[in-house]
């Protein structure tokens, strides 16, 4: 059986990655590709790597274009998904890569995004406790933010097992595609190559409440998160360094590894590496994988978890396809690469 | 039907890329993975991006390990393929990513590689005139060098159509994976990032005679090639700028485009871009594609062709799998990506 | 004696580099720093690397601000210098980093820039034959384009000595700062990192007539130039590969080296490397140097010259300061670095 | 007055940077340049960016070569400085860029480096409380590690002022020159470009005890440090994210800024940026500066400090020259750049 899937926001990075993955999906045919300012252009002019779609003409992101598909992937700027989704029928599967429907707490929404809370959809990290069940057969799914994906998967098992105290420090280094394709001077190649910088320091980044939401659920108690995002000179990838104080000074590495093996041992996309191997983002490039490694620092009394993922794949569009599979009742791994493109 | 394929040189860049592609090949099962110095290690320790093979143990590159496969891909240092291939049965398909069997002229071999000429195998650029027929069902195939692939596909149509004089200038910018995985100080990240340099200038690069061979065949007359390779700060990709003097001062862009459309219009992997679009290597990352664009410079009296490809995919391991398909009687495109991973 | 120098266009890349160099100049005090859209901002907000000027406030680029300085460096978008310079007194030294006054041929100006030819100023590559004399004491100087600097210095000696035929092929790989600081989607870090592309292929780049002008003078006859610029993933630097057919099939490397040693042996900023060493752009980063190496390809019958420079230093702002020194009667090397920042 | 200074380890990155800075020092003449494996080569073959020294011949690192200089900068692999320094006269100023004499605690030395503790020299971060006085006129100085420089300067003021609890988390992203010039496969350009990875996670990195030593002194009590180093794709630069829990839940940003302004307001090389500006490593490239910014996260209850520096300049060789100035009784800033090379 083949499902017809439209992608809105097809000229951007998330939309391009969604199309790349859907092109490799054996049970998907790509329907409308839509955007705003590039309507009428060929897709080849904006996404030259998507050769099989090079001659496709970009249509407007409008309900009459998107209607009639089995599913629609929304890769729109934050705040635009809600209005589009509201016009699509309840049987159409809508996978939203934007932030509109991720947060449960209206106050957090108000503080970080402003305006009225557009409501909450099932949240698309199937590997978190209890999440997968809510995604199967869902017709509305909120794809998580790229940073929360890494941070949440990195520390949820330790919090769930009570191995660490709920005071989390996240420093995550991201490639610059995470900032999108809208031209800004600080994102020019000449600015970012050869340079690392921090931004949104001190709790201001919009992905912070999403981490708090996920990790508090995992911990079963309120968690604080200190989150510092770094911009590093590469196109893709996030390496998250996530740590928290040990709950017990005698915590052993073996106990920590056991908690992660229990949590992810059967997961197809999340992998605890063997001892002695450390994740690199290149190993996940273009793949829907998260690679993890854990350490216990006895001197500092902390558990440190390193998580590598591709912000556009498992961090956005890969997660979208994984959720699409769950929504459509397909095997969850259908069409999703687990092999990175390296070096 | 499934073919069992071994990869020798599995810990290097070409071998890793061959395994990446073979993992996505629907009619291949991966047999032995072999190497020299890393025997006994898991593949995961050397190729962490190949998750499904992470636990495979690397075996020695020896005839008793390689024998019994339907096909063997050799990704060995230049000069080592000949001896290994000689021990494999004549029915075993051997695809050699090394240089050993590319050159037809023993004098050129002697000049550029030294020692006795190990003989010539069918040459693996199916898109060159007459090449595809020699590759179908062959049991020994020489995969071309990465630079010759770009340069040859870039100018063969113009030479074959008599549009340019046989005096070719090639300047090709390559990512550093082309230099292999053996550690050298001049290939350290700190040396290559933020820097471009030339090497092998003035005719010394070993890929020069291969270009001469290919382009002379296409031209039907002896061709000279001035080849300058550049090392640029990226892991993968080659952008070739290939030019030659026009044969006729009135040559129009339309005539040139017509020659390329005729040559490549039906090819699944080689594409002339629409006017106004220029190839970038990122568009071919991880794909088996070559993207071309052509220009005619009336002032200088030259045809200029730009060719982008991934040196590890269409430039090496993708070509190997394409040739493997031809050797095994499979559809030529089986298992080969035409979608790049960008940005 | 100290000269007071203003910089117009202080928030851009060329202006920032001019300020960096002037900060290290022992006989310059920095006067007004001016710009358009960033008027009123501190310089620290736009050029955070210029610590000693961090608190300077950016003034408007207006004649009343620029007047009264001993010299003014114009680092403005092409086409804006002429009007500004016309308002400055004839005794004020004006160093124009823009293209407005480089070309001597009105037809070439019309073809490549359009509009009325704004006239020609002394051209600021002192190392070209006869150029230095015209720059000493001049009050209006046109700083050359970054690409023409490399290409002209690379081949002028061979053309002047009659060693090559006047049919020049230039392929030059540039860091992305050459494209300026105005935000464009194709210059985003995510687009340029990991990718090489060509642009302006086939004679369309505006620096082509400037190369033709310089090299024709050196050759004493009309020269054709086929110029292909490449965008490579680094912030700064140009590596030019410049070649031409040998005039005499017996031309030896020694003859070529002798011509370059004669041309540049006494130059403080242009260096022919010892045999066996090849230039890298990193070796010139932040320095006012051009590093050259030459080769003779007997098979292809060409002389190939590789030239490395920093597009913002010797390619723009360093040349501006070098010319400023000549204009002000100072030793030509005053305040100019010859040491690169590497790795 | 001019001092004659030798550099041992002149073919490596730290030695090269020391020579770059000493070339710009108005009161230094460069004496012997020495190394091990490259003895007899010209310096130009190993450090092509140091044009004025290109013809210098590398001598062996031996006491008879190094003796007779006013000062010697040792840029040797860890563990080799002690033996060399022991043979130099007590009046010769010895500036050691290696780790041999940094640690005061023999147990920490034994744990992280092994073997007998070679003793402690005055520690070369003049900006730390009480440090400058010990460096003036000293004849033996231990240059700090690159990571400890950033982390210590980042948090010392907050700890000294009692604003945070002594439980420090450091995540520092470094360019790959920090790993040195010895060729290793994991440092190849193809491995590091496009990738971020962590190493030495969990307390294993040798710079950890140096941070503990510095920050405990600043705090006046024992401090724990959780240190995670990241390798990022750039040649130079370190961006440190350093945080600790607030001592008082009501701590305001103003209080924190006041502590840093008090600590560094008069420092020529360490700068707290204005509110709203965040440090980038590019702003410090080639300069002896550290750029800082601070934030208070009320939700997470932490102070976060971002510090940018160039690991080879203020992180190694710039600190060496700064210490040399103090040792020789020169103004501390002599010859040291405060202007970075950007973009």
UniProtKB/TrEMBL annotation, chains A, B, C, D:
It catalyses: N-acetyl-L-glutamate 5-semialdehyde + phosphate + NADP(+) = N-acetyl-L-glutamyl 5-phosphate + NADPH + H(+). Residues 4-136 form the Semialdehyde dehydrogenase NAD-binding domain. InterPro entries: AGPR, AGPR_AS, AGPR_dimerisation_dom, AGPR_type-1, NAD(P)-bd_dom_sf, Semialdehyde_DH_NAD-bd. Keywords: Amino-acid biosynthesis, Arginine biosynthesis, Cytoplasm, NADP, Oxidoreductase. It is found in: Cytoplasm. Its main location: cytoplasm. Pathway: Amino-acid biosynthesis; L-arginine biosynthesis; N(2)-acetyl-L-ornithine from L-glutamate: step 3/4. The active site is at 146. Pfam families: Semialdhyde_dh, Semialdhyde_dhC_1. GO terms for cellular component: cytoplasm. GO terms for molecular function: N-acetyl-gamma-glutamyl-phosphate reductase activity; NAD binding; NADP+ binding. GO terms for biological process: L-arginine biosynthetic process. Its EC number is 1.2.1.38. Catalyzes the NADPH-dependent reduction of N-acetyl-5-glutamyl phosphate to yield N-acetyl-L-glutamate 5-semialdehyde. Belongs to the NAGSA dehydrogenase family. Type 1 subfamily. This is N-acetyl-gamma-glutamyl-phosphate reductase. It comes from Nakamurella multipartita (strain ATCC 700099 / DSM 44233 / CIP 104796 / JCM 9543 / NBRC 105858 / Y-104). The gene is argC.
């Amino acid at each position: 059986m083949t499902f017809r899937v439209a992608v809105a926001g097809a000229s951007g990075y998330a939309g391009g990655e969604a199309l790349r993955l859907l092109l490799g999906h054996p049970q998907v045919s790509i329907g409308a590709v839509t955007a705003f300012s590039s309507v009428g252009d060929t897709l080849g002019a904006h996404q030259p790597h998507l050769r099989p779609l090079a001659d496709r003409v970009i249509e407007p992101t409008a309900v009459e274009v998107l209607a009639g598909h089995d599913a629609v992937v929304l890769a729109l700027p934050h705040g635009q998904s809600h209005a589009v989704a509201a016009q699509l029928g309840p049987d159409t599967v809508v996978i939203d890569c934007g932030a509109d429907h991720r947060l449960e707490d209206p106050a957090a929404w108000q503080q970080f995004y402003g305006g009225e809370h557009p409501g909450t959809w099932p949240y698309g990290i199937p590997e978190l406790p209890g999440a997968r069940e809510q995604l199967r057969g869902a017709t509305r799914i909120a794809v998580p933010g790229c940073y929360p994906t890494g941070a949440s998967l990195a520390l949820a098992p330790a919090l769930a097992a009570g191995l660490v105290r709920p005071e989390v420090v996240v420093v995550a280094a991201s490639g610059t595609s995470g900032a999108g394709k809208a031209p800004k001077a600080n994102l020019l190649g000449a600015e970012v190559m050869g340079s690392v910088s921090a931004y949104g320091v001190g709790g201001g980044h919009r992905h912070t409440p999403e981490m708090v939401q996920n990790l508090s659920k995992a911990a079963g108690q309120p968690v604080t998160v200190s989150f510092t995002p770094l911009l590093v000179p590469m196109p893709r990838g996030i390496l998250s360094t996530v740590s928290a104080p040990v709950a017990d000074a005698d915590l052993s590495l073996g106990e920590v590894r056991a908690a992660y093996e229990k949590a992810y041992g059967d997961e197809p996309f999340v992998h605890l590496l063997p001892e002695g191997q450390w994740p690199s983002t290149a190993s996940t490039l273009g793949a829907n994988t998260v690679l993890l490694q854990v350490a216990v620092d006895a001197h500092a009394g902390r558990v440190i978890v390193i998580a590598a993922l591709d912000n556009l794949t498992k961090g956005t569009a890969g997660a979208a396809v994984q959720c699409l599979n769950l929504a459509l009742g397909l095997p969850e791994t259908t069409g999703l690469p687990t092999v990175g493109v390296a070096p």
